[in-house]
Amino acid sequence: MDDDVRPMSELLSPIVAVDDVAQRDDIIFCDVRWYLDRTPGRRKFHEGHIPGAIFVDLDEHLATLPQKTRGRHPMPAAASFAASMGSLGIGHHDPVVAYDDSGGMSAGRLVWMLRILGHQAALLDGGLGAWPGELETGPRDRQGVDHPIRPWPNQLLADTDEAAEAGMNPDRVLIDSRSPDRYFGDNEPVDPQAGHIPGAINLPFGDNLTNDGRFCPPDELRARFEKAGLVEGDVPVMYCGSGVSACHNLLAFEHAGLGQALLYPGSWSQWSNDNDRPVETS
Amino acid sequence: MTSDRFYFRQLLSGRDFATEDSMAAQMANFVYLIGDRNTRDAVVVDPAYGVADILDILDRDDMNLSGVLASHYHSDHVGGSMMGHTIEGVRELLELRGTKIHVQAEEAEMVKKVTEVSDGDLQVHSPGDQILVGDIAIDLLHTPGHTPGSQCFLVEGTLVAGDTLFLEGCGRTDLPGSDPAAMYHSLHHTLANIPDDTVLFPGHRYSFHSSATMGMTREMNYVFKPDSEEQWMMMFGQ
After folding, report:
1. Please, how many CA atoms are within 13 Å of residue B189, restricted to the half-sphere of its CB?
2. What is the model's pTM?
3. Which residues does chain B have within 8 Å of residue A79's beta carbon, measured at their own beta carbons?
4. Which of A33, A131, B18, B104 is disulfide-compatible with A41, CB 3.0–4.6 A?
5. Which residue of A has its CA nearest to B202?
6. Is the dihedral of CA B68, B74, B76, B79 positive or negative?
7. CB pairs under 8 A between A and B
8. Considering only CB atoms, which chain A residues are within 8 Å of B197?
9. What secondary structure letter does DSSP report for A77?
10. From A76, which residue of chain B is nearest by alpha-carbon distance?
11. How many CA atoms lie within 13 Å of B204's alpha carbon, on the beta-carbon side?
């Protein structure tokens, strides 16, 4: 264990309230706004962000090149991710609180990637809208820092075969985090086939949130997973469109006290591009 | 597999150093710092533009400069005068910190000519040499094509490639001293055995992403499409 890791009492839970972090000067706020319609998140960042926050680009920093055989947001190589974090000015021991304006849909990816590497990182409950003070405008950068390369924990990453197996094996659980219309194949705005991976259950990430956009309390999150059939000790595989919003569910799972689960990063964007893979719509 | 003691930083000119230099920003050169966290030894790959800034970064990281690796002699990588521009580089760095510049034998004369350093400043290498930075081993791969003595650096699952290979495309082969056939050999033979999970770190930011695995690069980069030297020469020969 490194000697400068923060004591356990200060460890960040996956979801944090703004009142618990707003006054901490050791935290790096990361703005991870991203939009499926290609609206530039960086432009929104320049228009107004939490004072001192830096912009993290989902496509540039949190994914490598999109490919049909790997999906729309493949995990970057560990060395690439470390180089990105270093260039953004995030050291391995700097606690990170990430936010967006979509309930944590895109910011959750950064938080999950950092947490599985043992980094202190949390999602800001309520996102940008929860910030009580004035916003800062214009660009904002931090000086780059050394960020050691840490290998991805492969036991928390599922490939297509493992996702398929999780759907078909009655002893495992496969969770589709997309909206019900995409799960049932009624609507598919971006991928070549509509539907879901056979055997997957549908737990839309948006249901982790209350009507005011805050996370449900941990006991309610736990009840949600249990109602879907998960039992203590289950380690589900989670996916979504491209391994982004599934991270919201992964963080909710951990926040509920259920531990760590697996991400299938390729998700529907990889599965639906493979014509040899079956598609279910019921 | 990457060792915990592996120190590795990718610095972009005009963004991470030489921030007031518009040419540095336009050229988008990557400089790399490679070292051993235990011994605190580090080398710098291709220092150009703001060498004092680069040394400041090493100092902030409490790393001690133990050498310079030159991927090739062009002034945007080692400084000096070329094509009407004068860029700060290894000569100014040597004035600030005495150290050796590691070059391939075939590049030595041109490095001296462009940067005005002396024979005694150079550590001349043969293809396949390995150097140690602390206990971190760096393999020097001679990859001619862009220039006669271009070299790539293979270290701890990363390939620091200079202008031999970018995420998209490769270094120009229409410049004086370039050799398209040699570039084919370098990319399709010398680099052919680099594992797919090795991560390519290029000499310039010419793509949206700043690095990518060799596996992905081989799939996506058009320079790997030709499957014979004949096809290659039809695409890239002069």
Report:
1. 12
2. 0.96
3. 2, 8, 157-158, 199, 201, 211
4. A33
5. A80
6. positive
7. 68
8. 77
9. P
10. B212
11. 19
Closest Cα of chain B to A222: distance in Å? 37
Per-residue pLDDT of chain B (238 residues; tens, 9 = 90+): 577 899 999 999 999 999 999 999 999 999 999 999 999 999 999 999 999 999 999 999 999 999 999 999 999 999 998 778 889 999 999 999 999 999 999 999 999 999 999 999 999 999 999 999 999 999 999 999 999 999 999 999 999 999 999 999 999 999 999 999 999 999 999 999 999 999 999 999 999 999 999 999 999 999 999 989 999 999 887 6
Burial B47-77 (b: 16+ CB within 10 A, else e): bbbbbebbbebbeebebebbbbbbbbbbbbb
Helix (H) or strand (E) holding A31: strand A28-31
CA distances for B208 relative to B24, B28, B196, B234, angstroms = 18, 12, 20, 28
**Taking a C-beta distance cutoff of 8 angstroms, is the pair B7, B43 a contact?**
no
Interface of A with B (CB under 8 A): 59-60, 64-65, 67, 70, 76-80, 82-84, 86-87, 144, 146, 148-149, 151
Which residues of A form the catalytic set?
240
